[in-house]
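Journal club prep, shared notes

We agreed each person brings one worked example of a sequence with its structure written out as tokens. Mine is ABC transporter substrate-binding protein. I'm keeping it raw so we can talk through how to read the token line rather than staring at a rendered picture. Sequence first:
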Amino acid sequence: MKRTVLTLALAAALAAGCSLDSTPSDDSVDVVVGYQSKTINTATAGALLRARGYLESRLADITARSGIRYRVDWQDYDTGAPITAQMLAEKIDIGSMGDYPMLVNGVRTQANPQAKTEIVAVTGYHPRGALNMVVVPPDSHADTLTDLSGAKVSASVGSAGHGTLLRALAGSGASVDVLNQQPQVGASSLESGQVQGLSQFVAWPGLLVYQGRAKLLYDGAELNYPTLHGVVVRRGYARAHPEVLGAFLQAQLDATDFLNRKPLEASRIVAADSGLPQEVVYLYNGPGGTSFDTTLKPSLIEALRNDLPYLKSIGDFGDLDVDGFVDDAPLRAAFAERKVDYDSALASGGGSAPGGGELWLDGSDSTVTVADSTRLLQAVRAAGDRGDHVRAAYVYDTELGTRWFADKSVWVRDGFRYLPFDTSAGAKRYLAAHPGSAAVEYQQALAGVV
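Then the structure, token by token:
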């Protein structure tokens, strides 16, 4: 009987993602991390961080110096809401989530001194807001969000994707019936016809479009408003175990450095952990996708302040002192330990998209970049002529700069140039402003490029 109990306990520990330790629990410190493996721009505090073992390595260094042992428990969730619930119950110590969920986290936990949280780092952000999008069924006749007026749209209420939907609809005169659903449930609802649109955060829009299960209707970059994901920690835990928070931030910086140096390899690792196609992961963590930068930039903090009214519009949310909710001191200390100037890093990043294109051939462990979208089409056609299979081709929306799949883009021919747009609405705006230009199918663009 004792042997059976031990076997079950071992199986449970392995299923929970715990690192086993022979030291009794009273002699070790638990580190419980809530993350979202399928939310690509939290990878440096989640899937990539876990897979590379950076946190365990940093904690092992502390053990070697102090003798204190640590046990890390990784808990994977689909959205930020359940992470917040577990932090409120003091069962998760460190979590990563999007901008709206972080604010909800701060509001929900602020009344409990032991559960009260603070933002200590950013994982990834997009300066224009392209991390959140609205998709519709492939055969939908909708071209703009206003075409969905009166329709049912799936969104995770309180999520970054829901926030983008609210902002995009504000002032348009259109309204939709929002169904509060988890992302995977919303994807099924879209396919079954239960809803006519789905508004979500990465990587769901790219995944559904890549799989041919949806087309992009609205790019959050149209708002030209920053979206971000970041790291929150329970203050009580951070005060009790500052060395753990320090180790976590150092590990996150390790993961960020790795991703920025080897984005294709990082996408392979994250894909293996999350179950997402590597082509979809690389859409977001390749050049010009998510900006992976840990610093708490003033523009991002200002965006959080301006998000509060929208949060209050969807529920009973109290006030939150955003400046008091953000603490950059631990991250500054982590930078100083690495002898890196935090203020220089704070002022950098968030530049414009590359503007050309990137080709990834099947069987290759590297990609080829080209100067513009016309040359990308030439490279794709040349690969086909050689008999090479194109695994993925990425372009940048002509109007908004958003990185997107070439074969899922809407193409416009303007003279000898071929220009990609990630939505039909964007292409139509260009066509209206440029007489003589014409919309073409992707295969037509490939055949016509010279």
